[in-house]
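Pilot study result, target chain (128 residues):
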Amino acid sequence: MAKIGPAGRMQLGRALAALRDRAGLTQSEVAGGAGVSIGTVNRYEGWQDQGALRVPTVRAIAEACGATAEERDSLVTLLTSQERGWWLDHPALPEILNPLVSFEAAASYERVWANLLVPGLLQTPDYA
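Predicted structure:
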């Protein structure tokens, strides 16, 4: 079982949904092929559930979608390599902020767009 943060869950869920879409299957068909319930397929594709994800279930869903061995291994690596994150159990951080902090921790860059305000680091003495 792996308990990963929202950013990792979103990546995994989108990858599984993309495999299913590529195969042209419904969640019901994938569930039947993987030997799991429709709710399980929905839970794995929908990244907001907090339940633990299982490697055998990820493999089974990917196989039911016709994923290659390389794709299945990539999904398992994604699932097992994710860190849970310090913020998920921190008492001072409200649960509603978990996805935001998770995405921030996984980000490699940030883009800021402001049409009415120049960020402080870009302000010139004349502007200030």
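One observation from the pilot: The two ends are 53 Å apart (CA to CA). A full batch analysis is planned for the follow-on phase.
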